[in-house]
Design goal:
By secondary structure, this protein is an alpha+beta fold. The protein folds into 2 domains: about 90 residues, no CATH class; about 120 residues, 2-Layer Sandwich (Muramoyl-pentapeptide Carboxypeptidase, domain 2). It has 12 helices and 7 strands. The chain has a 5-stranded mixed beta sheet with strand order 2-4-5-7-6. A two-stranded antiparallel sheet has the order 1-3. Helix 5 packs antiparallel against helix 11 and helix 11 crosses helix 12.
C-alpha cells in the first residue's frame, strides 16, 4: 500500500505544479493583452467615443460637437453635452428656418440700409384684437399668429398688453439715434439707442410693450410677459445686469420673436439669454450646415 500512496502523492504534486503553471500562463497572457491596448492620454477622447455619431442626420461626433461648442458659456456647454441628440434635433429644425428669423443683430453685426421685411402688415388692421399706442405700427405677417395667441392668452388672465413700438426702417432709426445723441450725448445714447442697422426693430419681429420704461417690469403686463412670452416664441432681448454682453441697458419692454423653436433652444440650452443663443448660432451655423447630411436638406 505504501508505494501506491507515494505514487498518488507524486501525481497530486505534479498536477498542482502543472495547474499552477497553466494559471500563471493565463494571468501573464491577460497582462500582456492589456499592455498591448493603447491607453488614452488625459484630455484625449477614446477612439470608440470619437467615432460615435450623435444624431442620424448629422455627421458630428462627440469630439467634434465639443469643439463646436467650446466658445459657448460653460453652462451652455454642459446643457448641450447632457442632451446632444435633443440639441441637434432642434438645431436641424432651426437650420430650416429663413435666415433672418435667427439672425444676430447687434452693435457688431448690422443689417444693411436696404434690408426691408417683405411681409409687413399694418397692426391697425387688428385693432379690435391688439391694444395699440399708435396707428402707424407694423410687423411681419409671419409672427402674427403667435402675437395674437399671446394677446388672447394674456386676456384670459385679465392682463392687457399695450403695443407701443414695432418695425422701424433704417432711415427712421438713423433719425432716432441722432435725436438721442443730441439730447443725452453720444456715450449715454449708445447705452440705450441703436445706430441705424444695429437695431433689432428693423427686422420687423420686435415689439416694445407698455410705457417703454423700466417701470413696465413691475406692471401686470411686465410680469406676465416675463413668465409667458417664451411660450409664444418671444424673447427678452436685453435682460438686467448684462449690459456688457448685449451692449444695452435693461429693457424689460423689448421682446423679439424668435419662433417657438427658437425660444425653446434659448431656454433649454442657453439659460434663456438671447444674446448667448444668437451669438452661438451665428458662429456655429455654417459648421452645422456642413455636418447636416445632404438627404435631409433635399
Amino acid at each position: 500500500m505504501k508505494p501506491l500512496r507515494v505514487l498518488a502523492g507524486i501525481v497530486i504534486f505534479l498536477g498542482a505544479v502543472v495547474g499552477g503553471a497553466i494559471a500563471l500562463s493565463t494571468v501573464l497572457s491577460m497582462v500582456a493583452s492589456d499592455a498591448s491596448q493603447p491607453t488614452a492620454e488625459p484630455g484625449v477622447e477614446p477612439e470608440s467615443e470619437a467615432i460615435q455619431l450623435l444624431h442620424p442626420d448629422f455627421t458630428l461626433t462627440l469630439a467634434e460637437l465639443r469643439q463646436l461648442i467650446s466658445t459657448a458659456p460653460e453652462e451652455a456647454q454642459a446643457a448641450i453635452l447632457a442632451r446632444p441628440q435633443y440639441f441637434l434635433e432642434l438645431m436641424k429644425q432651426a437650420l430650416g428656418l429663413p435666415a433672418d428669423y435667427l439672425v444676430l443683430v447687434d452693435k457688431q453685426n448690422r443689417l444693411s440700409a436696404d434690408y426691408l421685411p417683405r411681409d409687413l402688415v399694418q397692426l391697425n388692421e387688428y385693432s379690435d384684437q391688439i391694444l395699440l399706442n399708435r396707428s402707424d405700427l407694423s410687423l411681419r405677417r409671419v409672427l402674427m399668429p403667435d402675437l395674437l395667441a399671446m394677446i388672447e392668452a394674456s386676456a384670459q388672465e385679465e392682463v392687457s398688453l399695450l403695443v407701443s413700438s414695432t418695425y422701424r426702417s433704417y432711415d427712421y432709426q438713423a433719425g432716432l439715434f441722432r435725436r438721442n445723441v443730441e439730447r443725452f450725448g453720444e456715450d449715454q445714447a449708445r447705452t440705450f439707442s441703436a445706430e441705424p442697422g444695429a437695431s433689432q426693430h428693423q427686422l420687423g419681429t420686435v415689439l416694445d410693450f407698455g410705457d417703454i420704461t423700466p417701470a413696465f417690469a413691475e406692471t401686470d403686463a411686465g410680469r406676465w410677459m416675463r413668465e409667458n412670452a417664451h411660450l409664444f416664441g418671444f424673447s427678452l432681448s436685453y435682460p438686467p445686469d448684462l449690459e456688457d454682453l448685449t451692449g444695452y441697458v435693461w429693457e424689460p419692454w423689448h421682446f423679439r420673436w424668435l419662433t417657438r423653436l427658437g425660444t425653446e433652444l434659448e431656454r433649454e440650452f442657453f439659460n434663456g439669454i438671447q444674446q448667448h443663443f444668437l451669438e452661438f448660432y451665428h458662429a456655429a451655423e455654417p459648421r452645422l450646415r456642413e455636418a447636416l447630411k445632404r438627404e435631409t436638406t433635399e
